[in-house]
Amino acid sequence: MKQTPEQLALAHAYSTCLGHAEALREALVDLHQRDLQEIEWNKLAKEDRRLLDQFAYRYTRLQDDMGARLMPAILRALEEDIAAMSAVDRLNRLEQLGWLPSAAQWSELRRIRNTFAHDYPETPAERHAQWQLAMAAAEQVLTLLDGFTARMHTKLPG
After folding, report:
1. pLDDT tens, residue by residue, 116-142
2. What CATH fold (topology level) applies to the domain 5-155?
3. For the residues of 48-112, what is the DSSP string, one character each?
């Protein structure tokens, strides 16, 4: 059976998100094993900087691609007319359809991501706290992607 353009777009967006998710999961495992302490934020080793960069890149890319590509693709695959919908309306619709546990939760995760990506705390304690918050948010984003995966396998054709 030939896939529709909506199904192809969904498959591509989903595949992209899975690639980011896999690398993000690996970075989170390594970060938890490394367990950087506040004092270490004064002078990071080269490998720690690389690990933090990997986490930051994959976390921001996954959340960006989920919001900008995967969620709209899911709605289109469900034959929803999203042309006139704002991002907030799309989140609310996904919540109404049971795909997203909470539009407000996604918005909060997005706020955390934006703070993480654009604020540069001065003290080691502030940097450490920001990374801890970002790591917890990244784990929630991964959980949401897992929920999308389960629903895609049961609710979407193809």
Report:
1. 888 777 888 888 889 899 999 999 999
2. Four Helix Bundle (Hemerythrin (Met), subunit A) (1.20.120)
3. HHHHHHHHHHHHHHHHHHIIIIIHHHHHHHTT---TT--HHHHHHHHHHTTSSS-HHHHHHHHHH
